[in-house]
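User: My instructor asked us to take a sequence, write out its structure as tokens, and then describe one feature of it. I'm not sure where to start. Here is the sequence I was given:
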Amino acid sequence: MSQPSRPFSSAASLPHILLIPSAGMGHLVPFVRLATALSIRRITVSILAARPTVSAAESHLLSSLPSSIPIVDFPLAPLDPSYFPPSSDPFYLHYEALRRSAHLLPPLLSVTGTSFSALIIDVSITSTFLPVASAANIPCFLLFTSSASMFALYSSIPSLSLSSAEFNIAGVLKIPNSSLPPPLRDPTNLFTTQLVDNSRALPLSQGILINTFPALETEVLTAFNSGHIVPGFPPVIAVGPLPPLGNLAEKQPPGASQAMRWLDQQPERSVMYVSFGSRTALPTDQIRELGAGLEMSGCRFLWVVKSTKVDREETGEIEELVGKGYSGRVEGRGLVVREWVEQVAVLGHRAVAGFLSHCGWNSVMEAAAAGVTVLAWPRTADQRVNAALVARRGVGVWPEHWVWEADEGVVAAEEIGNKVREVMRNQRMRETAAKLVAEATVEQDGSSDASKAMLSWPSLSRLLNCPSLR
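Assistant: Let's start with the prediction itself. The structure tokens for your sequence are:
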């Protein structure tokens, strides 16, 4: 049963922005963080929530939001799954249900009786929500939940030939075809049709917000805002790193503190944290090789193991995945858990020095903000583009031949173990990561501070009222 919508603030003198995320923790988390960042700047915010969510983690996050961030429940139009292949990604199906429900937004807003100053919409649902909002005369910004580098590819899709061996974007970014999200190789794939439709609608927005910061992606951000990537494009605004919410909205579910208690017992900068995010699941044979590689590395590790894309479907015991007797062999040196952990707290812990990551963008930004070096193992979607950025900036290592979901094969334990040791022992890379932290930290006169100034209402309203800024 849907939870009742929370009441709105009566502070009519304050601007009020409605945030509309799509599906998955990789999308919901940055929206919740953005809501907090805006609230700090005396902007009233509400979040539109389409329930039921795909994952339990999303439900938990929404239920833990403070009362200062009201939730508006959004009833989706029925979506007949028989029109889509049985193997369709459940998160993409949720995107589609949202896209096809955009026409329900104006009547819902009229029922609330709230006059919104602007909307901030997830880029994955723009093709239908932007025209509806435009017809209702509601200004719209977009939030892109990956890197500016990935957005350069995303926004250029309508003008690219996807059969090219390499994509040279405005002379500032070269992306090989092998880094293209695998579904884009199939023009009939649901993800592909959504992306192409959404990318064509981008110019209808007043601006695109990206959770990045200038020191990390200087050239790409400059190229966007000088019109070199897409001429006449709306402003692309770096607003990161968006702040974690601590105890307000990213509270850990019961049992998740086991990881923090274990980290408290480990030496400083001794642990490799291993996680492939909230959606990425490794096949069982690769899970076994990864486990063996971590054991062979001789390094301490905290491993969040995941075998299914949707967390509600996780069943069985850890030993069934990693092999009988594994937990006992690594006891004291390694901890394997299945529960959702509060990743910001883990990466910020004094014991953590490295991060074996799929390079989802939230993970990359959290590692950058914590000064933790990355062993990149992208698995799908935008992750190879993000991994290339990590390696280019000198804050991580990406073994480019390691397989991802589009490939057959398994990365061997010995190779994994060697790379884990390499990253954990690389002092120069650790110093580069620490330098990047200084750039990412919010300080007076810092680049991040200048980016976040754009989240003030005067700055956003200037973009709304001055088309010449586009």
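For the description part of your assignment, you could build on this observation: Residues 150 and 292 are 33 Å apart (CA to CA). Try explaining in your own words what that tells you about the chain.
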